[in-house]
Amino acid sequence: MLKTRKFVQQYDLLGCIQCGRCTAGCPLSLTSPLNIRRIIYQFLVRDKLDVKQMPEIWDCTTCTTCTLRCPKGLDPAMILVGMRRVLTEGGRVKPTIRDALESTFKFGNPWGRGKAKRSDWVQDLNVKNIAEGANAEIVYFVGCTPAYDDRVQVVAKAMVKVFEKAGVDFGILGNEEICCGSEMRRLGEEGLFEFLVEENLEIFKQHGVKRMVTTSPHCYNTFKNEYEGLDFEVQHYTQFVADLIEQGKLTFSKEVNRVVTYQDPCFLGKQNGVYDEPRAILQSIPGLQFVDFDRSRERSVCCEGGGGRMWVEASSGGERLAETRVKDALELGAEVIATACPFCMLTLEDAVKTTGAEGAIEVLDIIELVAQAI
Description:
Blueprint: E1 2-3, H1 4-10, H2 21-25, H3 36-45, E2 48-49, H4 65-69, H5 76-89, H6 95-107, E3 128-129, E4 138-141, H7 144-148, H8 150-165, E5 170-172, H9 182-186, H10 190-206, E6 211-214, H11 217-226, E7 233-236, H12 237-246, E8 259-262, H13 276-284, E9 289-290, H14 321-332, E10 336-339, H15 342-354, E11 362-365, H16 366-373
Helix pairs in contact: 1-3, 8-16, 12-13, 14-15
């Protein structure tokens, strides 16, 4: 049970006019019992709320559509994160969540993999290791999923190929790189997030990091918006690569004759306004025919991978939004769904399988398409 008065004050809920825009805009409302307007109403009229009886709070992907659409400037997504915090602090979480949190604390990643294996993906590549004393202008922050997941390691290797082609002076932190903490915070483990912030800031200071490029929009968003004391520029790779192309530092020598659409990652688009750069990259690739989703940019449909949902099953068994997205792409005539987020990649690839669309459509990261064209 939690006292609702604290939440009303903390999140300024008295400003809520019960207009319902948060729920109407929530992509999960199509498949989940999640109803943020009803939750806020319960906060306003009850002195206590039993969060244990509300499994749908784990359905939220923290895409922040509700926050963007609120006419009173409230942040409904963070209310759900606050409710999760109550459960996490009390140890009342599912084993998959507990394991991800424990693994991040022990090994610096949520995937249960050893720290000594974080840079195994780069063994056959000639990449500077800043943690071993190398100097580089750019730190490439690989991220947990690209470092450990076999499929997403291909994305990291494509990134290296593109950086080398463009003559970028870059390096990695090797086995000293640890989780940014984005999903830990959204799973309600604020203490672990603060611990990771302190650890990362110390690592960055120790190695004199002056500029960083990330694979994941989740890392980018967290470093850019949630790390107090970070004193250097952070870019998502789509921003960095778009600049390379515009400046003529990265050119193409091959055609990629595919029809491609683009899935806007929520943490890149809705939360940071990065819509043009990914599309500019795709439209610059010779031979590539770009077609956009009807629901794109600010209206884009979440893939359901964010907000810790990689470690949480949905409370309902309905069609996943990623499956809806795959069907939409097929209707567009797309041969490829391009994205720029490891979580989008994994959820969409699963959706291709569950919808029986294997062979009809492929999921690729934008940087893989770039690597094919150089």
